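Quiz preparation item.
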């Protein structure tokens, strides 16, 4: 998965805190540069450099949509930055004779506040009231919510019928006029793809052919063969995931599904914040990726 700035702009908490951090760091570095170096603590320079690296790392993880995978690592790294900034404030705040030192101290205070917010958020439980409140401004963004389903519908338009045979482990068949005609007849027998499909509409349609197969082997993801009962349905869930927490679907979004802690879900299209999923009772929809983890079959 590549870098995309839209991953950051779609997360209000991420873009707000990173912007706040960049401004605070500029204030601190400006004050440090204007200070008399003879009286300026050398350790504070290292603290500012370290803080710049932390802000850059958080920015890159948001843009790469991998922030959820490194939350606990970030908590430890950000805690070190918090110590550096509070130490800088302690060394400079009492030097009232230098306005530059006070400017650097003010910026360091703002950076300390930023680091504290990041520690509370990245170290918090996804079901905590603070995290759920913050995530409500970004994780339910409708522009991001249905990206996976839109990509899946695009894939279905390119369906030829050969995917079902390869899913059964059959060798690839050279495409000739006869095979092409046979595959085209299979594809034409399928219903037209929908641009939007709610979980209530999907429920009970495991044997429907509306849902396309997506090839994840290009990303070096592990492929799994499914029982014969699933072959030919167009539904391919290549992975299993275990629910880490209870999740209640948003009543305003019909695509979401609810599930219980420790429930095993079949999942696919796992390169975003929301994954396509199927519960043991056959209900299909999407689930938040930070509430589940992949498990071996």
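Solution:
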């Amino acid at each position: 998965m590549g870098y995309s700035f839209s991953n950051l702009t779609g997360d209000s908490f991420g873009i707000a805190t990173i912007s706040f951090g960049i401004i605070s760091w500029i204030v601190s570095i400006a004050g440090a540069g204007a200070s008399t170096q003879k009286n300026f603590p050398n350790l504070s320079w290292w603290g500012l450099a370290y803080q710049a690296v932390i802000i850059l790392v958080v920015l890159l993880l948001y843009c790469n949509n991998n922030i959820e995978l490194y939350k606990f690592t970030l908590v430890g790294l950000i805690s070190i930055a918090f110590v550096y900034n509070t130490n800088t404030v302690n060394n400079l705040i009492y030097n009232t004779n230098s306005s530059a030192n006070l400017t650097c101290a003010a910026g360091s205070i703002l950076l300390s506040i930023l680091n504290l917010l990041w520690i509370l958020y990245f170290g918090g439980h996804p079901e905590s009231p603070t995290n759920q409140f913050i995530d409500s401004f970004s994780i339910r963004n409708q522009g991001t919510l249905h990206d996976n389903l839109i990509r899946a519908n695009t894939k279905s338009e390119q369906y030829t019928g050969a995917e079902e045979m390869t899913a059964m482990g059959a060798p690839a068949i050279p495409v000739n006029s006869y095979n092409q005609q046979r595959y085209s007849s299979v594809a034409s027998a399928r219903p037209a793809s929908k641009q939007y499909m709610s979980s209530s509409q999907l429920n009970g349609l495991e044997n429907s052919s509306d849902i396309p197969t997506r090839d994840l082997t290009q990303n070096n993801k592990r492929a799994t063969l499914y029982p014969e009962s699933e072959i030919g349905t167009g539904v391919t869930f290549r992975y299993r995931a275990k629910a880490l927490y209870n999740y209640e679907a948003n009543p305003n979004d019909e695509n979401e599904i609810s599930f219980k802690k420790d429930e095993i879900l079949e999942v696919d299209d796992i390169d975003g914040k929301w994954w396509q999923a199927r519960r043991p009772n056959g209900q299909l929809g999407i689930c938040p990726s930070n509430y589940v983890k992949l498990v071996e079959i």
